[in-house]
Amino acid sequence: MTALFEARGVTKRFGGLTALHAVDFALDEGIASIIGPNGAGKTTLFNVFTGLYQADEGSVTFREQPLLGLRPDQITALGICRTFQNIRLFANMTALENVLVGMHARVGLGLWDVLTHRPRFHATEGALMARASALLERVGLLRQANEVARSLPYGDQRRLEIGRALASEPALLLLDEPTAGMTRGEAGALMRLLRALVADLRLAVILIEHNMRVVMEVSDRVTVLDHGEKIAEGPPQEVQANPRVIEAYLGTRHSGGPRRRLAER
To answer: What range defines the domain where residue 95 resides?
Structure first.
């Protein structure tokens, strides 16, 4: 059976530096986390997955369709959307307007419809507003719909990014360090949101995450990169106790308490 999303032998070089070497990855459902020390190649892999970088070798497919060579907007139109480590909202637009922008890939209006404000335009506009409000409600931000994005607390901005990503109707959502900068309570709320999205919308989610508590609690599977190579993959508890993973994070093998040590990082 072919996975929803699959990467095989992905290699990416920058001059004489090999950032990724023959990385395999596959996901059909649920939440998978990609972890590793700084410089392990995690964000580079995301950039290959979403068309920002082109791989030098290997293949990436989504619903059996090759992705390598496609532009980011073409990949989004197929049903893959991502957020970035640094928040990239439209700071001077409202929360509602940010979500509406995320719907551009699914709007069927032509230029003539917009210029003439024909009945089709008004019907579509009303449907988009209703759907944007529903998405804000899903991520817990409906009351802040008319607030300017830059005025929202940090955790709310992160959730707004996810709401905007959902506006493109993805089947696969890629999140780059979604809990970065969040308090423990905000991270917990985000984990509950992700689980609800997977259950209710049948989304598949790939995370890059440094918060090991989040990784261990929310992931169905964990993939570990180190120096651009995959060194471990499996259920969270199994990966957490893997000697190669402990060595990658701590710099040397420790015989005692690997689960506690990694969970606290």
So the answer is: 90-154
Give Cα separations from 144 to 100, 120, 149, 189, 233 (angstroms): 14, 29, 9, 17, 40
pLDDT above 50: residue 261: no
61 shares a domain with 179: yes
Residue 128 tokens read as 């988009």
Q: What is the pLDDT of residues 94-114, one digit of tens each?
A: 999 999 988 765 555 454 454
- Separation CA 53–CA 70 (nearest Å): 10
Say how far apart CA 173 and CA 135 lie, in whole Å. Answer: 15
Half-sphere exposure of 39 (CA within 13 A, CB side): 5
Q: Is residue 58 located within the same domain as residue 176?
A: yes
Q: What is the pTM of this model?
A: 0.84
- Tell how strand 172-176 and strand 204-208 pair up: parallel
Distance CA 31, CA 50 (A): 17
Please choose, from the candidates 48, 41, 26, the residue with its C-alpha nearest in 3D space to the C-alpha of residue 225: 41
182 in Cβ contact with 157 (< 8 Å): no
Whether residue 215 lies inside any domain: the answer is yes
27-45 confidence digits (pLDDT tens):
999 999 999 998 999 999 9
Among 111, 126, 154, give the residue marking a domain's end. 154
Phi, psi (rounded to 5 degrees) for 108: -100, 20
